[in-house]
Design goal:
Blueprint lengths: L3 H12 L7 E4 L5 H7 L2 H11 L6 H6 L13 E6 L8 H12 L4 E6 L9 H19 L9
Parallel strand pairs: 1-2, 2-3
C-alpha cells in the first residue's frame, strides 16, 4: 500500500502476525512520534487534528504506530520511499528496516533520490512496479517457506 496504505500494511503485518506472507509498503508512516519530529508543520498540524495532542493522547499515537508491533512482524517487508518527501520522511522506513534486520527478518528499503510523496518520473514508477512484482514473485509464489530468510 502507499501512504496511508503503506502505514496500514505495516500495522497489519504487526497486529495480525501470521495472516500475511510478505508486505510492500510505499511512503508509509512507521512511528507517529518520529513522523511529527520531521514532518512538514502543516502536515503535522493535520495529523494532530486527526489523532489528537501527542502528549495527552499518547496511547492513541502508540497504538497507531507500526513500530509498536515490530517484534511481531516476521515476514519480509519491502519499503519504497522518496528522499524529497515532505509528507512522510524516508527515515520512517529506515526505522522499520533496522528493527527488522536486528531480528533477522528480511527487509529492504529503496529510496528514490528525486521523488517526493508518490512517484512521477516514469523510470521510478516502472522500477517501483517491477520491484513490487519481483518481491511478490519471490515471497508468494514459492509457498510459505519462501518467506523465511
Amino acid at each position: 500500500g502507499g501512504s496511508g496504505g503503506g502505514w496500514l500494511t505495516m500495522l497489519a503485518l504487526g497486529k495480525h502476525a501470521g495472516e500475511f506472507a510478505t508486505g510492500v509498503q510505499v511512503v508509509g508512516i512507521a512511528d507517529w512520534y518520529t513522523f511529527l519530529d520531521r514532518a512538514d508543520p502543516f502536515v503535522g498540524a493535520y495529523i494532530k487534528g486527526l489523532i489528537g495532542d501527542p502528549v495527552k493522547d499518547r496511547a492513541a499515537y502508540i497504538s497507531a504506530s507500526p513500530i509498536t508491533y515490530i517484534d511481531k512482524i516476521n515476514v519480509p517487508l519491502l519499503s519504497i520511499m522518496g528522499k524529497r518527501d515532505i509528507r512522510v520522511p524516508w527515515q520512517q522506513a529506515e526505522q522499520i528496516d533496522k528493527a527488522l534486520k536486528a531480528r533477522s527478518v528480511t527487509s529492504q528499503v529503496v529510496v528514490y533520490a528525486d521523488e517526493g510523496h508518490g512517484f512521477v518520473k516514469h523510470e521510478n514508477v516502472l522500477d517501483e512496479m517491477q520491484r513490487t512484482l519481483g518481491w511478490f514473485d519471490r515471497y508468494l509464489k514459492r509457498g510459505p517457506s519462501a518467506a523465511r530468510p
